[in-house]
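Note on ligand handling. Small-molecule inputs were canonicalized before submission; formal charges were left as drawn, and no protonation-state enumeration was performed. Where a ligand contained multiple stereocentres, the stereochemistry in the source SMILES was retained. For adenosine-5'-triphosphate, this procedure yielded the string shown in the input block below.
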Amino acid sequence: MSLRSEIVHLEELVCRACEGDKEAQRQLPARFESLRREAETLIKHQQELITLYEIARELASMVNLEDILDLILTRALALVKAERGFIVLADEPASQESFRIAVARQFSLEEVDDGEARLSRSLIGRVMGSRQAIVTTNAQEDPRFQSSVSIVNYRIRSVMAVPLIYERELLGAIYLDTRITERLFTQEDLALLQALGNQAAIALHMAQLYRNLEQRNLELQQALAELRATQDELIRSERLSAVGRLASGIIHDFKTPMTTIKGYAAFLGRDDLPPAQRKQFAQTVMNAVDILVDMAQEILDFVQGGGPLQMEPVPLDAFVQEVVDFLKEDFSERHITIHTQLDYRGVVSLDKGKMRRVLVNIAGNARDALNGQPGSFTIISRRQDDQVLLELIDDGPGIPPEILPNLFQPFVTYGKAHGTGLGLAISKKIVEDHGGTIAVMTGLPKGAGFVITLPLP
Ligand SMILES: Nc1ncnc2c1ncn2[C@@H]1O[C@H](COP(=O)(O)OP(=O)(O)OP(=O)(O)O)[C@@H](O)[C@H]1O
Ligand SMILES: [Mg+2]
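Structure output:
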C-alpha cells in the first residue's frame, strides 16, 4: 500500500475508533506501527539520496584517478556497510579476463591477485563479461558459488558487484563482500551501489579524459620544445651562412671607415698641424671607429641571437624620455625635432638595454633617411586593449618601395654608405622576444612610421 493511501486509511480508522468502533480501535496500533516503519524507510532513502548527492559533488571536483578510486571505494563500503572490497579497471581493450585491481580495502592487493579471492576474481569476471550486477544474499547457500573453496574457507556471507559503464564503455567494476558479520546484502543495497557506480563511471571517464589530455599536453610540449630547438638551430645556421655569404659585402662596408681612419691618422702624425685641426681630425677618427664598433656589435648580436632577455618592470614614459635624452643632441645638431606624446604612463616588462637598441635603431634610420634635411621624429605611446602601442614616425622620404617586402630581413639595406641592414632584423627579433610585434605603418601622408606592440604585464 502506498504511503498516501496508508495515511487515508489510518485517518478513517482514527475517525471510526473515535466513534467507538471496536474493530477500528483494535487495528490502530498495528497501523501506526506500519506507518512508522514506512516513515523510517523514507528517512533512510532520503539520507541515502543526500549521501549520493554529496558523493557526486565530491567526485565532480576531483581529477586525479587514484583519489577518485579511493573515494569511490570508501564511500561504497560505508554506503552498504560492507567489510571488504576492491575496484578493478578494465584493460584496453576491455574483456572479461583482462582487468587489474586498482584499489582494495581489507584485501591486500597480492591476496586479490593470488587466489585467496579467486572467487572474487571469477565473480568480477562474470560481472564484466555480462555487464550485469550481481548480489548474493547468502553466498554459502548460493548454487552459483557452491563449487568455490573461497566461499567456505573465507566464510564469505554475502557478495555484491556492479559493472562501471560509461556510455556503453566498460570501465571496470566494484566488488564488495561481508564475511564476519551477519549482515547480508539486499536488493536495495544493490540499487544503491548501482547508483554510486553510475556516478563513479562518470568520474572515472572524466579522470581518464583528463589523464589523456595531460599526456597529450606533455607530448605536445615535448614536440614543441624539440621543434623550437630545431628551429633555433636552423635559424642559427641560416644566420651563420647568411653572414658567410655577406661577409664580403660587410668587409666592403668596413673599408670606408678604415680608409677614413688611415687617412686622418696620417694627418695626425704631422708636426705642423694646428691644434684645432688636430682635435677635429682626432674626432673624425673616433667617429669612424665608433661606426666600426657599432657594425661589429650588430653582426655579433645577430650571429649570437642577442642572448637572453633581462626583463624588468619599467615605466614606459620615463624609458622613452631616457632614449629621447640620449638622441637629443645628435638630432638637434641635424635640425631634427623630437616630439613625444606619451599617453600610456604605466609599466611594461622590458629588457631596457635591448629595447633601447630597437628605438635607437629606428630613430637612427629616420635620421639617416632625412640625410641632413631638417625634419621631425615623433614617438607616441598609448594603450590598446591589453597591449601597449609605440609609434615612431618621421617626415623623411619614406621607405624605398623596393625593399619594403623584405624590410625586416637581415642584410636588407638601401641607400646608405655604412648600413649593414641588420638594424631592423635585430629590432624585430628583440620585440618578438618580448612577446610583441613590429610593423611598418601604412597610410601615412609622408615619411616612414613603425608601430611596436608590447603585451601588458
Ligand atoms: N625611417 C626610414 N625612412 C626611410 N627608409 C628607412 C627608414 N628606416 C629604414 N629604412 C630603410 O630600411 C633599410 C634597412 O634598415 P635597417 O635598420 O635594417 O638597416 P640599416 O639601417 O641599413 O643598417 P644598420 O641598421 O644595420 O646600420 C635602411 O637601409 C633604409 O633604406
Ligand atoms: Mg638601421
